[in-house]
Design a protein that fits this description.
The structure holds two protein chains of two kinds. Chain A is α/β, with parallel strands linked by helices. Chain A is 32% helix and 30% strand. The two termini of chain B are 20 Å apart. Classes of the chains: A alpha/beta, B mainly alpha.
């Protein structure tokens, strides 16, 4: 069973598609990263998966249950939602209540009334996991953005969810906090929870996700493990003593394309394709009397890939 | 969900502030009469029963209720119902409640139930404070009815409670209108205005002769029917007509609120 699935999911606002025929099939236990520029449709997709926004057409399922039926929210989807924890756009709380109280109210709201002891223990546990125990009894009005963010994650974890849908979970957190969140999500995914993260932090997504989906203009333009999204082939940066001669030699080699060189600089970047390799380039340069002081691989940054993929997608339409 | 509402309401300063404010009215009425017991206020502008309090503290809660009914009661019902869904929407908590999950129907139903509970509690509080203040200042005694007979204190108390209940029923429809507007907008104060405006407009129209035709259908038309409870024997005609009107308004607008909410995109 897919933890989260979408088929032809579409949402139009005044004929402009915010989400356009989206297909998703996310396996249980995956840590899935949803990337896209502002206005790509990430949050709208999340809202439809949670039954907050009605799709124009198409279907979306959480934990195997369709979220909508006959133009209304599916009554059975309620049961599935119990196993889902979510953070949508930003956390929101009743500011006049303490962090703990907020969690208590949210936990109770789901009903039916059950074991109070268990509920309180669960609340304590989530507060501990997000590191909010010392501030749990202060009113949310006094919380910093980072604290509110942590509380939002705690709220998402309350019901021991099998599926987590998180919109920018590291938002407002310092690097330490970001790292903690990353480790937490990784741990949860390893334990079998499906974690769906919508994020702009490409490095984060790359570091922790099993799968990445890139959304632009409401459509999935790329999907796969983070490593797959990098272009094939390798690039190297070469530092030499005689740039002119080095460039002449390199350009003449089969499979070597000089990519970047600034006039007067003693280094350049070359893209290598078979039959050229870093070693063969090195040998050729040295053989021609060029002194090579450094030859290092250059990794294409995910950011460049990302920008390329979503090229031209405006967030204002 | 109802318990959650209760916990939240009891955790706020403003709940207790309102309670204090509500208590103020009956106390004010009793105090001002006790201090100026020379000339009893009379005439068409004075609320009914006002002059009679002097002889009997039981009239204090009745007077307070009579003063509340035209404006303050609809205002309270409007504010509470207008805040119900729109308040959560503007705070951003609406989406998190729905996702718990709380079904849309259950959310509207429990919010409405709590609004009416608060209205009833407010009215009960006014009655209690009025009884205590009136009793202390003027004592209890038999009251004259509109039919010329007299009623014992216990009998009167019963009818006062019936009046309080009738008044709460009278704004059930106003609160339902508030729920509908609350579902349609993200602005809680904005949502509060509509039901209050309806209540005021209804009362104004009820006095305009040229639209006599619609009078029986106005929500406030039978608001004063509680006076019939103070006849001997009690005349139920208008009271029943009133209750039917209130039930229809409530069903109509609450039904509309549910229908709209169940199909609405929650982007808040």
């Amino acid at each position: 069973m897919n933890a989260l699935a979408a088929r032809g999911l579409t949402k139009r606002y005044d004929n402009v598609p915010a989400v356009d025929g989206l297909d998703l099939a996310i396996d249980e236990g995956t840590l899935y990263g949803f990337l896209g520029p502002n206005g790509a449709g990430k949050t709208t997709t999340l809202r439809m998966a949670l039954g907050l926004v009605f799709p124009t057409s198409g279907q979306v399922e959480i934990l195997g249950t369709p979220v909508f039926r006959d133009g209304h929210t599916n009554p059975d989807a309620g049961r599935a939602l119990r196993g889902v924890g979510a953070l949508v756009e930003e956390p929101a709380f009743w500011k006049y209540l303490s962090g703990r109280r907020n969690l208590e109210c949210l936990a109770r709201a789901a009903g039916p009334p059950d074991d109070r002891e268990a509920r309180l223990r669960r609340i304590d546990e989530t507060l501990r996991v997000v590191g909010l125990e010392p501030a749990a009894d202060k009113r949310v009005k006094a919380y910093s953005q980072g604290m509110r963010q942590r509380l939002g994650i705690a709220a998402a974890l309350l019901g021991n969810p099998r599926l987590l849908l998180l919109d920018e979970p590291s938002n407002g957190l310092d690097p330490q906090g970001t790292r903690e969140v990353r480790m937490l999500l990784r741990r949860l995914a390893d334990e079998g929870t499906t974690v769906f993260v919508s994020s702009h932090l490409l490095a984060e997504v790359e570091a922790m996700c099993d799968q990445v989906g890139v959304l632009a203009r409401g459509r999935l333009v790329a999907e796969g493990p983070p490593s797959n999204l990098r272009p094939s082939g390798s690039r190297v940066r070469v530092e030499v003593d005689d740039a002119q001669r080095a460039l002449r030699v390199a350009s003449g080699l089969d499979g070597v394309v000089v990519d970047e060189h600034r006039d007067g600089s003693r280094s350049f970047i070359a893209a290598l394709a078979p039959p050229a390799t870093a070693a063969s380039l090195n040998a050729a340069l040295v053989g021609a009397g060029v002194g090579v002081s450094a030859l290092v691989p250059v990794h294409e940054r995910l950011e460049d890939v990302f920008v390329e993929l979503v090229e031209g997608a405006d967030d204002i339409r | 969900m109802f318990r959650v509402e209760l916990i939240r309401a009891l955790s706020r300063w403003r709940t207790y502030l309102f309670a204090a404010g509500l208590a103020g009215l009956p106390i004010l009425i009793v105090l001002s009469l006790a201090l100026s017991s020379s000339s009893p206020p009379n005439g068409p502008d004075a609320p009914p029963f006002l002059a009679l309090i002097l002889s009997n503290g039981l009239f204090a809660p009745l007077t307070a209720l009579a003063v509340f009914q035209p404006f303050f009661l609809p205002l309270g019902a409007g504010l509470l119902s207008g805040d119900s869904i729109a308040g959560e929407a503007s705070a951003g908590t609406l989406r998190y409640l729905l996702v718990r999950p709380v079904s849309r129907t259950r959310l509207v139903a429990s919010k409405y139930a709590f609004v009416m509970t608060q209205v009833a509690a407010g009215v009960a509080w006014v009655v209690i404070v009025g009884l205590v203040a009136g009793g202390l200042a003027f004592g209890f005694g038999p009251i004259p009815t509109l039919s010329g007979t007299t009623l014992g204190a216990a009998e009167t108390l019963l009818r006062i409670l019936a009046t309080a209940t009738y008044l709460v029923a009278g704004v059930a429809g106003i609160a339902a209108i508030g729920m509908l507007i609350s579902v349609l907008t993200d602005s809680a104060p904005g949502a509060a205005i509509a039901p209050v405006a309806v209540a005021i407009a209804s009362q104004i129209l009820d006095h305009v002769d040229s639209v006599r035709v619609i009078h029986p259908y106005l929500i406030s038309h039978q608001w004063l029917a509680y006076l019939d409870l103070f006849r001997s024997p009690v005349e139920w005609g208008n009271v029943v007509r009133g209750l039917v009107t209130f039930a229809i308004y409530t069903a109509l607008f609450l039904g509309a609120a549910l229908a709209v909410f169940r199909r609405k995109d929650v982007t808040a």
